[in-house]
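sorry for the late reply, my laptop died twice this morning and i had to redo everyting from scratch. anyway the thing you sent over, i finally got around to it. pasting the sequence first so we're on the same page, its 424 residues, then the predicted structure underneath. double check i copied it right bc i was rushing
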Amino acid sequence: MSTGLTPDLHDPAVLARLFAPAAGQKAIGLAVSGGPDSLALMLLAQRWAATLDHPPALHVYSLDHGLRPEAAAEVAMVLEAARGLGLAARGLAWTGAKPETGLAEAARQARYRLIGAAMQADGATMLLTAHHRADQAETVLMRLAHGSGIEGLKAMTPFSTVEGIAIFRPLLDVEPASLAALVEQAGLVAAQDPSNHDPAYERVRWRKLLPVLAAEGLDSAALARFATRMAEADLALAQMAEAAFEELVTLDGFGAAGLPVAALRALSPAIGRRVLGRVLNIVGGRQKPRALGQVERLYDQIAENGLPRAATLLGAVIRLKGETLTVSREPGRALPPEAPLPPGSALIWDERFRIANMSDAGDLIVGATDFMPRHRLENVLGFKVTTPAEAIRTAPLVRDAEGGVLALGGWSFDTRVRVELLID
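ok and here's the structure:
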């Protein structure tokens, strides 16, 4: 928890505490842009690793996005500094055409794609970034301004997964001034990205307001404490929502969900929205919405007025059938195309099912069921099927070369195939 005091970065015990979660890794990556924060991360990680009997291998990654002419020289500076510390280092480059719109998001995706590929080549399983207390404060302020709920107001967490990469942020409770001083003491000259001072960016505008807010007591330490408390509240709500989900939600073998609408309405809105959001995430193929607003509006409609007609949201079709809310996968172009299932392999189908070929059979194909008359389906399954038609059409079907059905939805009819519905 934030105390308001920045840790003593020269104390080996402090370094041991800050970097402890990375100690068990065989190899870790360091994202180093050349700015003061990331250079400090590199220095601190090297000093921490030097205190360990069996330290993880450290790999420095510095990326030239191809957006500023100075970036190539900055990458070269990082590589020289890293190698001076005895660290392995790679310079990466985002080449090719750049989009005219959505450039920041495209650059973010390119950064993690390129770093992720380099980490895989180096056997690194965790990426450390240099986000610090002021970054956390700015994130809290931006999310407050955007109307985020508790989940958003916890801001950045020490651990997360971004574009499939495990991220660890060891410096979230460290003031940036301490990091800059460390770099200066080491005799390094940090790069200065002009975009960090450009008021065209929202984060920069909030950064300029921080001193004014600090004068009224709302400094970066106070905002970091607020984020910590929101994270604690978020965890408590998540635990209650998990219990409600386990009690109320049923998932059938087609990946469709049902829950009693009266019980959903009886939950507090904070819990009900989370339960509904989790159902949509599972059933809709994990569309990973960036905003809570759509789920909130759907929940409010269900809680206040019912649902007079079917609604679609985040890859799911939502209906009120009697006293039960049913949620099934929305058919359409988002479903994966047919794919082979090679011997001994497994695939994640539509982010909803894990399907494995447990044999040496090389002729298995996975695709959407698309259309199967209910009477034939009931003959295959051996029971009456009441799930929505969309759920049937969007369930996976595993066939062999002769067209034989080996698995359908979550049911397997052949020992060569194993199917699991993913609910986490």
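Residues 220-248 form the longest helix (29 residues).
thats about all i looked at so far, will dig more tmrw
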